[in-house]
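Listing S7. Sequence submitted for prediction.
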Amino acid sequence: MIYRNWQDNKIPALGFGTYELDNAQAAKMVAEAAKIGYRHFDTAQMYHNEQGVGEGLKASGLKRDDYFLTTKIWFDKFQSGDLQTSVVESLRKLDHEFVDLLLLHWPTEEVSLEETIAALNEVKNFGMTRLIGISNFPTVLVDKAINLTNVPLTVNQVEYHPYLNQAKVLENARSHDMLLTAYCPIARGTVFQDKTLTDIGAKHGKSAVQVTLRWLMQQDSVMAIPKSGSPKNAAANFDIFNFELSDEDMAKISDLSKPDGRLIDPDFAPKWDDAA
């Protein structure tokens, strides 16, 4: 396993994502992922599976100190009072006293960022989360959030894969001593048939997916949370720590980025950073 060190925290760089898994699937797959060796698990209020994730962690038999748990607050709960109450509800569903990381899921203009960051700070000070951060924040809003918070922000979780250049966002995260967590890391399966990735994989006896996840792991400050509903695929995704990509391989993969590479762009999305 590769870890990212943030202050005094050691975070597994490869996590298990649970988007689009219902409670029953999440319970099953989180327990399976724990058997495989995953120690970082990601959910969100909007996924409607926090209860299942909690059940899977309970069934895994892992001690609380042995894994890292993230959840995310949906933007309809960003007002002070609503945010704190929603976190209490998330912890109830997860059957946990605290999470390791709590993120604002998407920025919104409906509530002032100052109010939301203050409420997020309060939740941290109450001990309901060990760390706080943001998700889907472009650099201008990251800078604003950093200026508003009294508690350091740990992570910006964003879409990141070979077809989407996130150099500006990653550079910005590093400049603030933040980590970047890549969601949608295999581009909704698009990487499967990519010739560049399959050719690189052939040299290492690995699949295009494994090459893609390894590419992310070899970037400083980057974590990734691939999701799978299949124990076989989850195990394959985890089998990436016994090979290393060359500098040439890394450059070829980075060169796959394209202007229309973004896959997640809802109507409420912020104005994104242009590729570097």
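Caption to Listing S7: primary sequence and predicted structure tokens for the chain studied. The mean pLDDT is 97. Residues 7-190+216-244 form a domain with the TIM Barrel fold (CATH 3.20.20.100).
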